[in-house]
Amino acid sequence: MSALEPDELTRLLTEAVETIRPSPDAYRQIQAGIARRRRWRLPVFTLGGMVMAALIGLAVVAIRPSPSNQVVEPAMPPVMPTTFAEPSRAATVPVPGGTGRSGSGGGGSASGSATRAPTSPPPTRPTTSASSPSVAATSPQSSAPSITTGPGSPQLPTPVAKPAGVNDIDGDGQPDTVAVDGTNLRVKFSRDGQLAQVPLGSITTPLNSAVVDIDADGFGELLVQTQAANGTKSYALLHYVSLDQLVAVTPPSGLTLGAGVHGNSAVGFRCADKTLQISKGSSNDGTQFNVITTTLAFTPDGLTVQDSASSTVRLPADSSPFVVSCGALS
Amino acid sequence: MTVVEGWRPVPARSDAARSDVARDADAALTALYSEHYRSLVRLAALLLDDVGLCEEVVQDAYIRVHGAWGRLQDRDKALAYLRQTVVNLARSTLRRRLVALKHAPKPMPDAASAEEGAYSLVERAAVIQALRELPRRQREAVVLRYYADMSEADAAAVMGCSIGSVKAYTSRGLSALSGKLEGLR
Q1: What is the distance between the alpha carbons of residues B135 and A36, in angstroms, rounded to a whole number?
Q2: Are the Cβ atoms of B122 and A19 closer than 8 angstroms?
Q3: Helix or strand (DSSP H, E) at B20
Q4: Which long-range contacts (C-beta less than 8 Å, at least 24 apart) are formed by B95-99?
Q5: Cβ atoms of A256 and A267 closer than 8 Å
Q6: Which residues 51-110 in chain B show a CB within 8 A of chain A?
Q7: By CA distance, what is B40's nearest residue in A?
Q8: How confident is the model at residue B120 (pLDDT cuts 50, 70, 90)?
Q9: What mean pLDDT do residues A208-227 have?
Q10: Do the strands A324-325 and A114-116 form a parallel or antiparallel pair, or are they unpaired?
Q11: Which residue of B has its CA nearest to A11?
């Protein structure tokens, strides 16, 4: 078999296709094809652009996070009603004359020599109770913790000013109306006109109450006198925890919100520096009292002990710490 | 430049509205048509199984090159680009024809025209019949090397393979053609 030479193959291929002649209208067909391509270019590009824009829009809608309607809780959120069991240790409050170091001043309104007893924040949690349906009594005798179930994480509106204005509980800058109906306290909120009813064990009449923004969070706390017996007045403290909801807050175990001297025991409290200071005194002769002043602050867990100090007060020579000094309340 | 048969100049109003690139593409297309259309049709006739499709393939290649004229980096290589487009379109056409032949019966042939008479001459050439029996790549290598007179490097660029592959395809194709044509002699 003789091999095919390249030149011979080239000649054969050239001769084979030599008879092919292009058609006379070939160029016209090319021009028509170009015109057709040009004519469709704009609609095709427009359609493609619209499809691309639609795809981008869908992608943006798909990946865009949904607008959050959650309310940002303040730095110091209000009491979060929880269910808990009170630990059986009440020794977190130092006793006078304990292993403290000497300090100056009584840390409160008490005068005279004072012995400061620093304490670590106690593990005890204050008692909180929801405004409905049942509210633990806030009388001095009912300091035992109650077990309540809260509605969940509270949501607060945004306050207009910090601290809150006069008689402004809901933080809208307008005063709210407080009224009493038997043992129920009725608060009409100016924010939305809603009426909150808080059942208390008892309420003195005429109503003795004051709105004080103790923690300066823009929502006023409501102090209401509940009882007056044996020269001692008892008070309830109501905290605004969420929209149109008030919660009665009780201090930690062993402390009560009251004012007055009864025999050899005395109690009083004052609002100062975003804290609540409760002074509890005991005496042997009814004139010289050993005073333990406990400073409480609002935390997410409620009223939490921050500090405690002891002092000695002689009545009636020294100014009495066993009174109420919170806003207009006396 | 030779005058193209059937060429109609674009109206002046439309011509003014078109960009310089489009005008350049039109002029280049006219030049390419005048000088290379016939050889490209013949090249396509050697690559395709059906000679009647060769003009359609080449015209489509011209249209695509015209559309992509603005994207050409080196316009001096427009002929190479056009030739490569013809080869690619011939491959696609062959692929489509294979699929169509699998799924559709071949239609009855119509009455032969004068052009088809010329095509039938091509169909009857022994070298064409032998060429069509070659594998596609060997056929492309042989046609590009010995009909289009391209170097191995240019053929490799058009075929999208290495120079060594072109050498191998050419050698095998040439041997196969020798055997087939020897039998026909």
Answers
A1: 36
A2: yes
A3: helix B20-47
A4: B97/B49, B97/B50, B97/B53
A5: yes
A6: 51, 54-55, 59-60, 62-63, 66-67
A7: A22
A8: low
A9: 88
A10: unpaired
A11: B147
Look up tokens 């066993």; give the residue: A322
- If one counts every other C-beta atom within 10 angstroms of the C-beta of residue A299, the result is 19
Q: Is B40 on the interface with A (CB under 8 A)?
A: no
- Does residue A39 carry a pLDDT above 80? yes
Other Cβ atoms within 10 Å of A291 Cβ, number: 30
pLDDT, position B138: 93
Nearest-CA distance B62 → chain A (Å): 7
Across B104-117, average pLDDT:
54
Question: Is the pLDDT at A48 greater than 90, yes or no?
Answer: yes
HEC readout, A129-145: ECCCCCCCCCCHHHCCC
Q: What local confidence, expressed as pLDDT, does residue A57 receive?
A: 94
Q: What is the mean pLDDT of residues B58-79?
A: 85
Q: How many CA atoms lie within 13 A of B156 on its CB side?
A: 11
Give residue for tokens 């929880």.
A82
Half-sphere exposure of B94 (CA within 13 A, CB side): 19
The answer to whether residue B152 neighbours chain A at the CB level (below 8 Å) is no
Q: Which of B10, B15, B42 to mutate to test the interface with A (most CBs of A within 10 A)?
A: B42
Residue A179 contacts residue A114 (beta carbons within 8 Å) = no
Question: What is the structure's pLDDT at A299?
Answer: 81
- What is the reported pLDDT for A147? 37
DSSP element (H, E) containing B102: helix B78-103
Instruction: Take residue A258 and report the two structure tokens written for it.
Output: 């009251």
Tell me what the mean pLDDT of segment A84-96 comes to.
45
Task: Please compute the mean of the pLDDT values over residues A29-40 and round it to a whole number.
Answer: 87
Report which secondary-structure segment, H or E, holds B141.
helix B136-146
Integer Cα distance of A126 and A145 in angstroms: 7
Residue A141 has pLDDT above 50, yes or no: no
pTM to 2 decimals? 0.42
Which alpha helices (DSSP H) does chain A contain, by range? Answer: 6-17, 26-63
Cross-strand bridge partners of residue A224: A209, A236
